[in-house]
């Protein structure tokens, strides 16, 4: 019976991550595919850039929440079965499946976002104190550069240092995950890195939208 619970939790985690919030908001309220505009990314940043804050902020909040909820499934499905270390690994697996669902959503033709917002949900669930530090750092970087990709990648890169050295994390699964995040976020921003090197990466204009903008940015 417990195996059925674990399989169900893994399936639900992926399906939660697969909810294509930005795609559905674009189609239902604006009659457009967010992936055909702006940067072509089905994420909160592109939603804010193309549709504005009123559409983008709810997308961001839900994308964070769905991954947090995926990790929290461990409290109801499979709870009490594992040792403390195994429980951490179980929660990491559920969070990873949610991020995988966000990047490759079954409900949107497997064309999703970069996974940053969903990673934030996982981080909030597993590293609440470290998240607050990273949030401050991300905010400072955004104010200084106004470039979301730079802020996201730099936050991901310093994340393991915050986890290991500032909060003295000793659990190996959480250390490995922190290091994986530092690699995963730059990997998903490969095109942004190319634009940064060319000097064509766009800066973020808060509160503005460009529904008519169909250029890659």
The total of helices stands at 10
- What percentage of amino acids are in beta strands? under 5%
How many strands appear in the DSSP assignment?
0
Rg, alpha carbons: 17 Å
What number is the mean pLDDT?
91
Give the oligomeric state: single chain
Query: Strand-and-helix sequence, N→C?
Result: HHHHHHHHHH
Indicate how many domains the architecture comprises: 2
Structure keywords:
globular; 10 helices; disordered C terminus; single chain; about 220 residues; mainly alpha
Characterization of this structure:
There is one protein chain. The chain is built from ten helices and no strands. The protein is an all-alpha fold. The chain has two domains: 1-114, no CATH class; 127-205, no CATH class. Helix 2 runs antiparallel to helix 4 (53-72). The longest helix has 20 residues, at 53-72. It is globular and about 50 Å long. The N and C termini lie far apart (49 Å).
Question: Layout of SSEs?
Answer:
Elements (H helix, E strand, L loop, with lengths): L1 H17 L2 H10 L13 H8 L1 H20 L11 H20 L12 H11 L1 H18 L2 H19 L5 H17 L1 H9 L19
